[in-house]
C-alpha cells in the first residue's frame, strides 16, 4: 500500500490531514481524487499562494489505494468484475474477501454488516482482521497530528459523517463542526451532507472508528454519479474524472485549511 506525504519540511510535525481512497475495489473514481490532488498541490507550489502556504504549514498524507489487491482484481482481463471487498481467502472455503469498510473496531459487528464470508458486507472474523485496515490503523495511530480524514467512495453524491453505526449524531460541539463543514462543502460540490446512518446503518466503517476512537473529524464522500441507472454507477468512465475532481477541489482545500484546528469553523 503506497502513500505520500506532501509538506515543505519532512521532519517537522505539523497539523495533518489524510486523504484515502479505494476501500472498495470497484470504486475506481475514488482513487483519482487523491491522485489529482497530489498533482494539483505539487504543480502549484510556489505558484499559488494558498497552496504554497498549506504545504508550508501542514503535513498532507495521501493514500490513493488502500485496497490495491481488490482494485487490480476488479480490472482483471480488462473487464469490470463488480468486486467490492479485498482479496484475501477466507480460511477453509472458496469465499474471498472482507468488506474493509466493515472491519474497523468501533462498535464492530453491531448492524449493517454480515458474519457470512460470502456476503458483500462481510465484516471479517474480528475487528482489524485484514492487513489493509491494520495498515491504515497503524498509520493513523503513529501520526497523532492527523485532525481530519477524508475517505473517498462512490457513488451517490453525498457528504457523510458519524455516526454510521447508530441513528444519532455525535452531539455537542463536534456535531456542530461536522454539520457546519458538511454544509459549507456541499455549497461547492452540490452533494447532500448527512449523517452516515441517514444513508443506512453500518458498523465498522473508517469514520466511526477514526472519530470514535481518536476524535478525528472524518468525512466519507460518495462521489459522482448521483444514480446508478443513467449515470454509470461504479463505472462512469474516464470522462468523469476531471469534472468530479473540479467539483471537489474546493472541499478538499477547505479541509486542508481547517486541519490545523477544525473548531475554527464554528467562529467563522
Ligand atoms: O456502505 C459503505 O461502506 C459506504 N457506501 S458504498 O456504496 N461506497 O459502499 C457508505 C458508508 C457510510 N457509513 C455508514 N453508513 N456507516
Ligand atoms: Zn465504498
Could you tell me how far the N terminus lies from the C terminus, measured between alpha carbons in angstroms? 38 Å
Class by alpha and beta content: alpha/beta
Number of strands: 7
Unreliable segments (pLDDT under 50, ≥5 consecutive)? Answer: none
Shape: globular
Assembly annotation = single chain
Mean pLDDT: 97
Per DSSP, what share of the residues sits in E-state strands of 2 or more residues? 5-15%
Topology pattern, helix = H, strand = E: EEHHEHHEEHEHHEH
Describe the structure.
There is one protein chain. The protein is of the alpha/beta class and 268 residues long. It has eight helices and seven strands. The chain has a seven-stranded mixed sheet with strand order 1-3-2-4-7-5-6, with helices on both faces. Helix 1 packs across helix 8 and helix 5 (172-189) runs antiparallel to helix 8. The longest helix is centred in the last third of the chain and has 18 residues, at 172-189. The termini are far apart. Zinc ion (ZN) binds at residues 23-24, 27, 101, 153.
Amino acid at each position: 500500500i503506497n502513500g505520500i506525504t506532501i509538506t515543505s519540511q519532512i521532519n517537522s510535525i505539523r497539523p495533518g490531514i489524510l486523504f484515502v481512497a479505494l476501500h472498495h475495489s470497484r470504486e475506481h473514481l475514488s482513487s483519482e481524487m487523491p491522485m489529482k490532488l497530489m498533482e494539483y498541490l505539487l504543480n502549484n507550489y510556489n505558484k499559488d499562494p494558498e497552496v504554497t502556504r498549506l504545504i508550508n504549514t501542514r503535513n498532507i498524507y495521501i493514500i490513493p489505494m488502500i485496497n490495491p489487491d481488490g482494485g487490480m482484481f476488479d480490472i482483471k482481463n480488462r473487464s469490470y468484475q463488480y468486486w467490492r471487498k479485498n482479496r484475501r481467502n477466507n480460511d477453509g472455503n472458496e469465499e474471498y474477501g472482507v468488506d474493509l469498510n466493515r472491519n474497523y473496531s468501533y462498535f464492530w459487528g453491531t448492524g449493517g454488516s454480515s458474519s457470512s464470508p460470502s456476503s458483500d458486507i462481510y465484516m471479517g472474523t474480528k475487528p482489524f482482521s485484514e492487513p489493509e485496515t491494520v495498515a491504515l490503523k497503524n498509520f493513523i495511530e503513529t501520526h497523532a497530528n492527523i485532525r481530519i480524514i477524508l475517505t473517498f467512495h462512490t457513488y451517490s453524491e453525498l457528504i457523510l459523517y458519524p455516526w454510521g453505526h447508530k441513528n444519532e449524531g455525535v452531539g455537542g460541539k463536534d456535531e456542530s463542526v461536522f454539520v457546519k463543514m458538511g454544509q459549507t462543502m456541499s455549497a461547492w460540490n452540490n452533494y447532500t451532507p448527512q449523517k452516515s446512518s441517514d444513508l443506512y446503518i453500518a458498523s465498522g466503517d473508517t469514520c466511526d472508528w477514526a472519530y470514535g476512537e481518536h476524535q478525528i473529524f472524518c468525512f466519507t464522500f460518495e462521489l459522482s454519479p448521483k444514480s446508478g441507472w443513467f449515470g454509470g454507477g461504479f463505472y462512469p468512465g474516464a470522462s468523469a474524472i476531471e469534472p468530479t475532481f473540479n467539483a471537489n477541489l474546493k472541499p478538499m482545500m477547505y479541509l486542508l485549511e481547517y486541519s490545523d484546528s477544525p473548531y475554527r469553523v464554528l467562529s467563522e
